[in-house]
């Protein structure tokens, strides 16, 4: 296969993979009667250290008020707590609760089980190369997002 065709195939498979993940999250958010953005926010908080509301806002592309409403929902549901930073008392940090960890486990364990079965069929070198490639692609996507943010605002029609 030509290099360009192989690249096109890879991009197509990545798009399909991203779509399948979105469908899975959609199904699970429906099953758990949660907003998709709530699940995405929970995953972001679980993955980070000293995550702030601003971090969630930037990660999800939400306004401050939309982020506040989302975090209020998660807090009422017992999924996150907010606490003042010990370093800077003006800063708020988010933490996931045991309830959120249980929900997260019930959501992502079935997916992880299927993914691990696939990963088990591949060698360490292949997995390391793939992880490195995906890290580079993530960097490229973040750069593209920054380019979009720097564009002039759309013109009204």
Automatic annotation (TrEMBL):
<feature type="domain" description="HTH marR-type">
    <location>
        <begin position="7"/>
        <end position="139"/>
    </location>
</feature>
<dbReference type="InterPro" id="IPR000835">
    <property type="entry name" value="HTH_MarR-typ"/>
</dbReference>
<dbReference type="Pfam" id="PF12802">
    <property type="entry name" value="MarR_2"/>
</dbReference>
<dbReference type="GO" id="GO:0003677">
    <property type="term" value="F:DNA binding"/>
</dbReference>
<dbReference type="GO" id="GO:0006950">
    <property type="term" value="P:response to stress"/>
</dbReference>
<keyword id="KW-0238">DNA-binding</keyword>
<dbReference type="InterPro" id="IPR023187">
    <property type="entry name" value="Tscrpt_reg_MarR-type_CS"/>
</dbReference>
<dbReference type="InterPro" id="IPR036390">
    <property type="entry name" value="WH_DNA-bd_sf"/>
</dbReference>
<keyword id="KW-0804">Transcription</keyword>
<dbReference type="InterPro" id="IPR036388">
    <property type="entry name" value="WH-like_DNA-bd_sf"/>
</dbReference>
<protein>
    <submittedName>
        <fullName>Transcriptional regulator, MarR family</fullName>
    </submittedName>
</protein>
<keyword id="KW-0805">Transcription regulation</keyword>
<dbReference type="GO" id="GO:0003700">
    <property type="term" value="F:DNA-binding transcription factor activity"/>
</dbReference>
<dbReference type="InterPro" id="IPR039422">
    <property type="entry name" value="MarR/SlyA-like"/>
</dbReference>
